[in-house]
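Dear H.,

Thanks for agreeing to be a second pair of eyes. The structure we're designing against is below in token form, covering all 373 positions.
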């Protein structure tokens, strides 16, 4: 009766305990009566033997067979189902009309719907795979129990309600102890003198303890009011703040006191804290902006450096070409006269290639004429 797993429910307006037949059979097969002892045979050897034994208990009205009746859905759900059915019928009619209008559009729509379904299934799989996502709770259908016409024990998922409900040993023992305590209290005048003196001192001590707690509760309130009135409501001092709180016995004496200051300085401190937080946020935003600007400046400098490197290469190539042209002009106009060399600094100062060439040719032509004169 107490080892078989049971559940409780209401049946015909009464609270009852019921069990499932297969679990009862398993319970008896795992019990000590299914094991053979010395010189004795086991009472339960197969499931059929257990079923026969349970049939005998059923005939003796230890339990009876019940029938599960599933509860029907309310009218709102039926109305919703009807509305859904009407919508489905209207949708089918529209589909038929669209099929008549054109088959190509239907094929395209079907392909799009298939793609959407595939995408939705992939997203659902991803959501299920991600850890921490709460799973949907399985909805259990409600049922009620009714007495069955055929009272037979069958090994399966059949439901049986317990009729045999004995008083548990623990409840019996507790009730017996309470009865003995009441009788002993009524016989207090017959107790020995030492026991009566001990009980008297214990009762006085308990009464003093309760009275001291009540006095402390009143005294702490008076102390709070005095401090609050003297300071004008600025200081809130509580002695034993958890004395009357809903906590344990030891926690009711912790902490010893609490103190709060609720004056103008406290408001100023709160404002200063809020301002400091705002300044920190503003500084962090400025730092982020300055870092962004530095990054942008670094990028622009890098682009400029790359441009200057390219222009320097072009200038070096220009100087090399100018040197070659100077050498050729010197060899062509060589009449034994000395010509002055053009320095690198003068070539770098000149920017236009065409102007540089014309000036150099004029210098080479004019200088030998002056030397001759």
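And this is the sequence the design step returned. I haven't edited it by hand at all.
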């Amino acid at each position: 009766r107490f080892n078989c797993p049971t559940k409780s429910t209401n049946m015909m307006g009464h609270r009852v305990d019921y069990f499932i037949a297969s679990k009862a059979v398993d319970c008896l097969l795992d019990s000590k009566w299914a094991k053979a002892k010395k010189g004795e045979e086991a009472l339960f050897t197969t499931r059929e033997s257990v079923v026969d034994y349970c049939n005998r208990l059923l005939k003796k009205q230890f339990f009876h067979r019940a029938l599960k009746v599933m509860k029907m859905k309310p009218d709102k759900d039926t109305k919703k189902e009807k509305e859904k059915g009407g919508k489905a019928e209207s949708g089918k009619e529209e589909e038929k009309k669209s099929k008549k209008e054109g088959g190509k559009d239907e094929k395209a729509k079907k392909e799009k719907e298939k793609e959407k379904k595939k995408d939705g299934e992939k997203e659902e799989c991803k959501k299920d795979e991600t850890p921490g996502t709460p799973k949907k709770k399985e909805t259990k259908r409600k049922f009620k129990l009714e007495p069955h016409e055929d009272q037979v024990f069958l090994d399966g998922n059949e439901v049986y309600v317990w009729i045999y409900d004995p008083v548990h040993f623990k409840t019996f023992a507790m009730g017996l102890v309470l009865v003995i305590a009441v009788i002993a209290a009524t016989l207090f005048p017959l107790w020995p003198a030492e026991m009566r003196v001990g009980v008297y001192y214990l009762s006085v001590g308990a009464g003093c303890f309760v009275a001291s707690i009540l006095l402390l509760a009143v005294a702490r309130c008076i102390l709070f009011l005095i401090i609050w009135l003297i300071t004008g409501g600025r200081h809130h001092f509580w002695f034993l703040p958890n004395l009357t709180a809903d906590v344990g016995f030891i926690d009711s004496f912790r902490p010893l006191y609490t103190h709060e200051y609720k004056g103008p300085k406290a408001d100023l401190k709160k404002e200063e804290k809020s301002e400091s937080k705002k300044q920190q946020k503003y500084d962090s935003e400025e730092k982020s902006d300055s870092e962004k600007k530095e990054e942008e400046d670094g990028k622009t400098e890098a682009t400029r450096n790359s441009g200057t490197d390219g222009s320097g290469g072009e200038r070096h190539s220009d100087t090399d070409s100018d040197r070659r042209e100077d050498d050729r002009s010197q060899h062509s106009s060589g009449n034994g006269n000395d010509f002055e060399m053009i320095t690198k600094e003068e070539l770098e100062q000149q920017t236009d290639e065409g102007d540089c060439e014309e000036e150099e040719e004029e210098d080479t032509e004019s200088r030998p004429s002056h030397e001759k004169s």
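Two observations from my side: Residues 129-136, 310-317, 331-344, 368-373 have pLDDT under 50 and may be disordered. The two ends are 144 Å apart (CA to CA).

Warmly,
E.
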